[in-house]
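User: I'm putting together notes for a lab meeting next week and I want to include a structural view of one of the chains we've been expressing. I don't have a solved structure, so I'd like a prediction I can at least talk through. The sequence is below, exactly as it appears in our construct file.
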Amino acid sequence: MKIQAAVVREQSGPFDVSELDLAEPKDDEILVKIVGVGICHTDLVCRDQYFPVPLPCVFGHEGSGIIEKVGHQVVGFEKGDHVAVTFKTCGTCDPCFEGQPGYCHDFYGQNFNGSRPDGSCALSENGETVHGHFFAQSSFASHALCHVSNLLKVDRSLPLELLGPLGCGIQTGAGAVMNALKPKAGTSIAIFGAGTVGLSAVMAARIVGCGTIIVVDLTDERLATATELGATHTINASDNDPVAMIQEITGTGTHYSLECTGIPEVARQAVDCLTLTGVCGVMGVSPAGTEFNLDMNSVLFGRSVRGIIEGDSVPRVFIPRLIDLYKQGRFPFDKLISTYPFAEINQAVEDVESGKVIKPVLLMDA
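Assistant: Thanks for the context. Below is the predicted structure for the 366-residue chain, given as structure tokens.
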């Protein structure tokens, strides 16, 4: 079938909205008409080839939409279902079986290969292959082929066009707090970076009862949003030493910290701001091979550092919980979102990269 899709044809190139051919779904695949799709930092770093995703490629991995067709082996989904799309895993390795799908041994193969795991591609242009299946969806498109394992049905009364970012950025930030760090009520947390991931972590920290929630960023507007969402303190790192200020606010440092920027110097600050036995979660995406330094004696005194992928989430369990919190008014993730017509994808990218908006969502029918 003919679809509209945004193709990146060269490293760091623009998103070129073009007509492509999309193959019919295989037996375990589902055709989804995309209604809305978030733009995530991971889409942009893969466009820039931080990770070697083959080009030309259709990115997009925070899609939501309506099922149009299901493969012959699909059970539990049918035409007309409203769905949100998330990441895909192999489902057979130890982490998948143990409820840690973000650490699937084949996470890269399932999400970043630019093809199905068997090497086949469903997208083409004038007979030439266009890579896709990005996070088993490639949802910067009017339609996407998804896998039965990376879809979840959502209530038809919900604003479907806004739900896609729950599949990656929002569950990553919220899950880092709720699933990975699991802070006790009254404890302190410092969050470095007030983008989608960091601000989702702020809302989660408020829900679980953190007593001190400190947010560090370079943009006053984003820090104001952090305060609105639950931060008790904010620090503009462009003219302040965040580690010194965090020590001043807390006395001994925070119990927890989250690094959401992918900048090595910031990761060091996120560790240095911890109190003894504090835990730093690292989530920011950096080019492959990026390193950062730590003071060995600082870590020796009980501090620890751990990476967090997709918020340690089991999406079919965690995303419905976030939706319930949203319905209760306790997790207002919609305050992060700015919407754009799909045709304005390059403007949306420019606005998020400049810090003008937090989470752009492309609307297919706008």
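A couple of points you could mention at the meeting. The chain has eleven helices and 18 strands. Residues 2-167+332-363 form a domain with the Quinone Oxidoreductase; Chain A, domain 1 fold (CATH 3.90.180.10).

User: Perfect, that's what I needed.
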